[in-house]
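Support case: 3-isopropylmalic acid complex. Customer-provided input:
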Amino acid sequence: MSKYKIAWLPGDGIGIEVLEAAKIVLNKLNLDAEYIHGDIGWEFWCKEGDAFPQRTIDLLNNVNAAMFGAITSKPVKTAEAELVPELKGTGLIYRSPIVRMRQLFNLYICLRPCKAYPGNPLNFKENIDIVVFRENTEDLYCGVEFNPVPQELADVLTKLSKPFATFSKMPLDEYAVSTKINTKKGSEKIIRAAFDFARKFNRKKVTVVHKANVVRATDGLFLDIAKEVAKDYPEIQMDDANIDAMTMWLLKNPFNYDVLVAPNLYGDIISDLIAQMVGGLGFGCSGNISEKLAVFEPSHGSAPKYSGMYKVNPIATILAAKMMLDWLGEKEMGDRLEKATAEVIAEGKIRTYDMGGSNKTLEIAEAIAEKL
Ligand code: IPM
Ligand code: MN
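Agent response - structure generated as follows:
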């Protein structure tokens, strides 16, 4: 019996290629693991009406961790589902399986470290080292959305909200409602995770990202809780910024920032911005984490136009594998993997097209494996 069971979820598009690259380095490290394939992605939505089939959910209930590649997320309305023969008449609406997975397994932490590895020609500035904690289950991602708006909802909103009265006179199919729901408990958990991380790794500051000047109810709640939680961590400085200003300040002086914590959507946006500052999506790695299960992935998508070309940079996924090793408690292996990756970046001999080279996806993995 292997020490670990790892669910292996390539998904579709370039997800398949980048996970192949991750397997090369994990095999070289001799991680004592059994990798179990799981079906997920666009293909299964088309075939079965479910992009995240029950058998894959069952698999995730029985593993220590998972590696996930990427999936094609398309906004599909019922009318479009009618065009897929297998789904005709089912009224199904496609929802992103990764978002569902985060919610189903309460993977409430989305951890996104953004580090500028020395010698990466794509670094915006050298020495950037920012860690994003993104709340991963609530907020505008909660999936409570209406288009068209049901009459009952229009009635309640008209009754409860004066400014809303202008909309309420409109026909129900003339507007749409997406709700942003943030709980006290969910906000506190992600904020504590950020402060605990700062304490454990000797980080100096946690910056809370929000838009509480306008979105008072939900972001106001998030910010209030952050101020309370911060009192338990007197050695760590806390500050906060509105999401819009934050994007400017990050570009102006990234060295002012250390650990960031944000509700789901702002965390999504800001982590792409910071990933670009350390080399782009080819370097953005991500962990979806709870106490029981963690799913690691590159933060890029399935890039259908590059699918099957073995062209894209696998480093984001290899760094996600490093995060998995750390989470499993295999820190020594994780450190070795990061060091080997940093060496390949610094040497600059083997590079994918995004870094100005012409090497293929698996050649990068092999170059890293060589140094392990
Ligand atoms: C990410 C992605 C996902 C998200 C998409 C694919 C649903 O952008 O992991 O950041 O919005 O969370
Ligand atoms: Mn994203």
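DSSP finds 14 helices and twelve strands in the chain.

Case will auto-close in a few days if no follow-up is received.
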